[in-house]
């Protein structure tokens, strides 16, 4: 997955960032994904989302329709446990399945967090990845208020970690990285301005016409 897998990972990150923007909508998230995706990743997202628009959720045959929409871009094949010989080989003609399906479920459910996650779980194949990607998108759109408290508590209990505290730690690290990046950028801008000013001063012709 060194080609379209990385492409999809970057698109997912951008889509989640867009979902966290105040007043962002499902349509905004999809638009961001389509704007940044390349080659078959973009085509697969378009095909799956187009199908998802006509669905009322996923519980009445919707998962099969989404799978059919993605199939032309798949390299793994129907027996997921026995992938084809060319499965996941870098290609501009194929796409990973998880991102298009996560976006498709987001659209089909109208951004509903629980239904997006459950749709991913019930899809089969790489269900955990689809559910987690869809959950990230829907959760970013709705915020902590849309998360199911029983799920949060059960995952924390089973994992023996406080996942909410882990989330806060990750947020703190992100803020720290942003602050450091901003500081480095400001230092570079200041250095460039000083160099430019020095260069202009060195080449400036004085009133007597004799360069300094």
Any key phrases for this structure?
single chain; 212 residues; mainly alpha; 2 domains; 67% helix; 0% strand; globular
Radius of gyration, in Å, reads: 24 Å
Structural class of the secondary structure composition?
mainly alpha
Secondary-structure element string: HHHHHHHHH
Mean pLDDT: 91
Structural topology:
Blueprint: H1 4-19, H2 26-36, H3 39-53, H4 62-70, H5 98-108, H6 113-123, H7 127-142, H8 149-159, H9 163-203
Helix pairs in contact: 1-2, 1-7, 2-3, 3-4, 3-5, 4-5, 5-6, 5-7, 6-7
Give an account of the 3D structure.
This protein is mostly helical and 212 residues long. It is globular, with a radius of gyration of 24 Å. The N and C termini lie far apart (60 Å). The protein is built from nine helices and no strands. The mean pLDDT is 91. It has helices spanning 4-19, 26-36, 39-53, 62-70, 98-108, 113-123, 127-142, 149-159, 163-203. The chain folds into two domains: 4-147, no CATH class; 161-204.
What is shown here, in short?
Helices cover 67% and strands 0% of the residues. It is an all-alpha fold and 212 residues long.
